[in-house]
Design a protein that fits this description.
Elements: H1 3-7, H2 17-31, H3 62-72
Region (Disordered): 1-32
Biased composition (Basic and acidic residues): 1-12
InterPro entries: His_deacetylse_dom_sf
């Protein structure tokens, strides 16, 4: 269903996807002036035990997480 189709189905002109998109862009511009707080990371060392034994190509593995932790410790 396109934008023109929605106009004929009870939606007022200007309330379709084009209108929503401009509102989202406006909110994104306003967000630039918001206070930026620091980001925290919390993890449990048990997360380093996670491994997919039946799929060696599975991207999540203990080595991947430990590399991220080591890098962020710097």
């Amino acid at each position: 269903m396109g934008y023109r189709d929605m106009e004929g189905r009870g939606q007022k002109s200007g309330e379709g996807p084009v209108r929503r998109s401009s509102r989202i862009q406006s909110q994104a511009r306003e967000a630039k002036t918001m206070v930026q707080l620091p980001t925290g990371v919390v993890f449990d060392e048990k997360m380093l035990e996670h491994e997919c034994l039946w799929d060696r190509a599975y991207p999540e593995c203990p080595e991947r997480l430990s590399a991220v932790i080591d890098r962020s410790a710097d």
